[in-house]
Amino acid sequence: LQGIIQAYKSGITLQGNTTSLGRWDYSGSFFFSISAITTIGYGNLSPSTAVGRIFCIVFALFGIPLNLVLLNEIGHLMLLGVQHCARRLEEVFHWQNKASFLMKTCALVTGLLLFLLLPPLLFSDKEGWSYEEGFYYSFITLSTIGFGDYVIGMNPDRTYPSWYKNVISLWILFGMAWLALVIKFCINILE
C-alpha cells in the first residue's frame, strides 16, 4: 500500500491494468504552470524534489508578474473590442449612450456564457460532475480561490482527450481577464 501511495504522489495513476504518467505529461505540466502563475494553486500537484521546488519558486517569481501583465493586456484588448463595437453602433445607428450600454451588456452576457455558464457542461461530460459542481469549479478557478476540492483531469476512472487540459488552461487565462474586468466594473459602480 505504501508503494502505491508513493507512486501516486510521484504522478503515476492506475488505469485498468496499465499505468499512466499523465499528470506530468505535456498538458499536465502546462496546466500546472498555468495554475502556478495564476496563483490558483489547487494543491493536487506539486514538485517533489528540492531542485523542482527551487525551479518552481524562480518560475513563479518571473511568471506571476508576467502573467499579470498578460492578463492586463488580454483585458485591455477585450475592452478595446467592446469600445470599438460601441463606436460602430453609434456611427451606424446614431445611438449615443445606448450603444455603450448595449455593448457592455453583450460583453457581460457573452463572458457569462463562455466563462461561467457553458464550461460546466463540458465538465459534466468530461469529469462526470453535476452542472452545479462544474459552475462552482468555474468560479472558484477563475476567481483564483482554487480550493482543490474539484480539479480537472484527476479521475483515474476516466480517459481525457489530449486537448482537454490545454483548452482549460487557455479558458483560465481568458476567463480570469474577463472576470477581472467584471470586478473592476463592479468596483467602479460601488465607488
TrEMBL record:
Q: Which domain of life is it from?
A: Eukaryota
* The UniProt record lists the keyword Cell cycle: no
Entry membrane topology: Multi-pass membrane protein
Compartment list? Membrane
Hydrolase among the record's keywords?
Answer: no
Q: Which InterPro entries does the protein's record reference?
A: 2pore_dom_K_chnl, K_chnl_dom
One term under GO cellular component: plasma membrane
Location of the Potassium channel domain: 20-78, 113-190
Query: What Pfam families has UniProt attached to this entry?
Result: Ion_trans_2
Q: Where do the TM regions start and end? A: 50-70, 101-123, 135-153, 168-190
Coiled coil, from the record? none
- Where this protein primarily resides, as one coarse class? membrane
Enumerate the GO terms in the molecular function aspect: outward rectifier potassium channel activity; potassium ion leak channel activity
Note the SUPFAM superfamilies from the entry. Voltage-gated potassium channels (SSF81324)
- Keywords of the record: Ion channel, Ion transport, Membrane, Potassium, Transmembrane, Transmembrane helix, Transport
- An individual GO BP term: stabilization of membrane potential
Q: Which PANTHER family match?
A: POTASSIUM CHANNEL SUBFAMILY K MEMBER 17, POTASSIUM CHANNEL, SUBFAMILY K
Family indicated by similarity: Belongs to the two pore domain potassium channel (TC 1.A.1.8) family.
Name of the molecule in the record = KCNKH protein
Q: Organism, per UniProt?
A: Motacilla alba (White wagtail)
